[in-house]
Structure formats: structure tokens, C-alpha cells
């Protein structure tokens, strides 16, 4: 764990943040579809149960998606534990991806669906959650790290 401390810090922090926000949404919104405008017509909290992957593609595919989340998570944990030290940007990227995969994977294993609630209505974007944000931040970090000179990696 000492080899890639930023990886573990980000993974744990964002996993907790994801799970706490989902718990609060489920507790505060009695029914699926309930919404609360943060900025009317622009951004709402809307309680949605997503049985698919990102943007609800593969709806009903929970059976294999939960296993995909598990294998991605185990692979990243194995990589961070046994691989060489990552650059800080790589640690952030892999940590974010682990947090997202674990966050949505926990939902799939426990409930059979993922709790989504971030609803950007201005651009009619699909409802998503903190785990989805983490995965996208992770991908951005990994892409940016690929442009770093080898000496910084």
C-alpha cells in the first residue's frame, strides 16, 4: 500500500462518497422518479434505478455487469499491490476507476441495480452517479498520463 498511496486514498474516499450519496438519495426520495431541482430545468437530483451499464445501455444485463465490476476491481487491486510504483496521475486514474467499479458493483451485488441521481437536464444527459464521475475522471487521468514523458511515469 505504501507503493501507491494516492491510489488507495482516492479509491477509498470516492467509494465512501459514492455510497453515502446513494444512501442519502434512497433515504430522502420515497419513490423512483422523485426529483428535487437544484437549479430548475438545469440540474436536479432524480432517483433512478439503472439495471444496465452507463447510460442504461444493456438494461437488464445485471448478471454479467456485476461480475465485470468485480473482475475490474480485483484486477486494479492486484495491479496496485504488485506492479511497480505508478506516477501520481496514474495512481489517481486507477484509484478513480477502482472507486467507480466498486461503487457500482456493490449496488449490483446488493440490489440488482445501480442508484443514479445526478440529472443534467439542460443537455438532456442520462442520469448518473458519483461512481460514474469517478470512472470518467480515472479515464481522463490515464489518458493524460499516457502523454507524460517516460521519465515522469
Largest sheet: 3 strands, antiparallel
Number of strand elements? 3
How many separate helices?
4
Helix and strand run: HEEHHEH
Structural class determined from secondary elements: alpha+beta
Shape: globular
Question: How does the SSE layout of this entry go?
Answer:
Elements: H1 5-28, E1 35-39, E2 43-50, H2 62-82, H3 88-111, E3 114-120, H4 130-146
Antiparallel strand pairs: 1-2, 2-3
Helix pairs in contact: 1-3, 2-3, 3-4
Which features would summarize this protein structure in a list?
153 residues, alpha+beta, three-stranded antiparallel sheet, 4 helices, 3 strands, globular
How would you describe this protein?
The model has no long low-confidence stretch (mean pLDDT 88). This protein has helices at 5-28, 62-82, 88-111, 130-146, and strands at residues 35-39, 43-50, 114-120. Helix 3 packs antiparallel against helix 4 (130-146). It has one domain (5-28, 49-152). A 3-stranded antiparallel sheet has the order 1-2-3. The chain has 4 helices and 3 strands. With 153 residues, it is an alpha+beta fold.
Question: How would you summarize what this structure contains?
Answer:
The protein is an alpha+beta fold. It has helices at residues 5-28, 62-82, 88-111, 130-146; strands spanning 35-39, 43-50, 114-120.
